[in-house]
Design a protein that fits this description.
Rossmann fold; ProC C-terminal domain-like fold; elongated
């Protein structure tokens, strides 16, 4: 996910006056490959990255973050004292801004983001919560950077667990639906490759209709359902299987799991 976001930053470099991207990773070869693809640099340690970066993207798992923050804390403190502290940007579930600041021993400028995997193709949704220590100018610059990976939405930090359950986990639910939709096409006689293409494009186009028309999904659904027609028969079958209730419960389960990680 960190690479996906940096890929978006690199693609959006013109909008932010150029981008200088550096990577550090426990797997040196992985960092080298990422830097080569995006014409970036490789830092030899997390400490070096914290010394040189203006925005430090913490793209690590929640259970690893404590160690990373402890490693870079002295550098962050030094830069805070000098008045040129970096902005820490975390995507680790369960780590609040307050907890991140406490881990580096001060009131560092910090932000939390919750991206999703479509960021890999610049179609992601990135929810952004920023601490008061981030100036309006730096917050705006961060938002502009992230826009290369998809849509960016500012949100209160208290809603990030819900965002995790909906848009963070949501692509997996959408992929299940696309797969099932394609299976239905195969059952009806379509070749597998065409069924999958039609299913994916149908979901993609339907999402675009919601976003671009501003109409409620229920209204758009009603536009497709003619009286006694094929679509209403299919909708009735979905309702028999508790389709909407199952989706709601899936988001609820993911949201509750995100809260447990806090």
């Amino acid at each position: 996910m960190g690479f996906a976001l940096m890929k978006g930053v690199a693609q959006n470099a013109g909008a932010i006056g150029g981008a200088h991207i550096g990577f550090t990773d426990a797997d040196g070869q992985k960092a080298q490959a990422a830097a080569a693809e995006l014409k970036g640099v490789v830092y030899q340690s997390n400490t070096e990255a914290a010394e040189k970066g203006d925005y430090i993207f913490l793209a690590v798992k929640p259970q690893v973050l404590a160690g990373v923050l402890a490693e870079i804390a002295p550098v962050v403190q030094k830069r805070l004292a000098a008045g040129n502290a970096p902005v820490l940007v975390s995507m680790a579930a369960g780590w609040s801004i307050e907890k991140i600041q406490a881990a580096v021993g001060g009131t560092a400028a910090a932000a939390r983001i919750m991206p999703n995997t479509p960021a890999l193709v610049s179609k992601g949704l990135i929810a952004l919560a920023a601490s008061p220590q981030i100036s309006g100018e730096k917050a705006a610059a961060l938002e502009t950077m992230l826009k290369g990976a998809g849509a960016v939405d500012r949100i209160d930090e208290k809603h990030l667990n819900a965002v995790t359950g909906l848009s963070g986990s949501g692509p997996a639910f959408a992929y299940l639906f696309i797969e099932a939709l394609a299976d239905g096409g195969v059952l009806a006689g379509l070749p597998r490759d065409k069924a999958l293409r039609y299913a994916a494009q149908t979901v993609f186009g339907s999402a675009a209709m919601v976003i671009e028309t501003g109409k409620h999904p229920g209204e758009l659904k009603d536009m497709v359902c003619s009286p006694g027609g094929t679509t209403i028969a299919g909708v009735a079958a979905l309702e028999t299987g508790a389709f909407r209730s199952s989706v709601i419960k899936a988001v609820e389960a993911a949201w509750q799991r995100a809260a447990e990680l806090a």
